[in-house]
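Batch manifest line 385
LIGAND: zinc ion
JOB: complex structure
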Amino acid sequence: MSVLITGIGELTTNDEEWGQLKDAALVLDSGLVAWLGPATRAPMADLKVDVAGRAVLPGWVDSHTHLAFAGDRTAEFGARMAGAPYQAGGIAVTVAATRAATDTQLASTLRRHVAEATNQGTTYLETKTGYGLTVADEVRAAKLAAEHADEVTFLGAHLVPNGMDADDYVDLVRGPMLDAVAPHVRWADVFCETGAFDADQSRAVLTAAAARGLGLRVHGNQLGFGPGVALAVELGAASVDHCTYLTPSDVDALAGSDTVATLLPACDLSTRQPLPAARALLDAGATVALATNCNPGSSYTSSMAFCVATAVLQMRMSVIEAVRAATWGGARALRREAGDGAVGVLRPGSRADVHVLDAPSVTHLAYRPGVPLTHAVWRAGLRVR
Ligand SMILES: [Zn+2]
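JOB STATUS: finished
ARTIFACT:
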């Protein structure tokens, strides 16, 4: 059934040719955008929905979440807000709870958080393994994640499990664990950080994953300056995520590469780190994405709108830059921004992922921070809210 969405006061397309339109309409058919243009010239469709002057944009693309988890870290968060430092080792608490959870419990948690994101306008979502850290637990997480998320990333190299030698664990991750998980995932990732994996260990995991045909992502430069960004660029990773501590040469390396700088401002706020230098990255010509990093330890939010508002109000991104980073940027970080069925963009042939705001302009996302502005959502042409 085709759907005509008309009465669009402001249509943000992220497409160079179409730009931002006023008084526009969209036709969705067979899961794709079939037509867009001025409302006065819109063709007929099976169903007509008049959005009465509201703003329409592509659905959010959340390119970085960790939703295959169990357990609760409220107490740790409370302690951190009372002054305790954030350390990578907190992940071990979630690992223990995740291993102890049943498949049903993990699936229920995934379903609940994906639904929560969808209700806020997220229509394309990546999630990761990384709270299993045994061959069996990582395979289980990958299979369950694939049932609920659009993209799944293998993050066996999230943390060295308690009681294991780091180099022995790297050999397990890049050998038997990778062999078992690879059929269920598209990406591999590593937490390249002091307290997690160093540059050589990270490179060993990523090169093995690339040899298995997986695309690469890196968690880097989150808690301090480090080798993550340089390694991601060296290996041609699709994205390096966090980028909280960047040197001028890191910025130059990203600007001269196809590696997306994925910024996770909700995580930086939740861990009381400085916010990343989005302005320096954009001004240098790097591609920037915004994502939630939704996880129970360092960033327990599924709100892309919160990330956009923070990026505008505190990171000096313009509204258009922030909206683009949270849609097209995320799609680029997942290499899904081009061709038929592209996400993060609205143009004929793109996937019909449509977010209608209860506002006349995307500017309200920052002008009215914290206000739930999602009015309606279509995902691949189906109304999901
Ligand atoms: Zn993460």
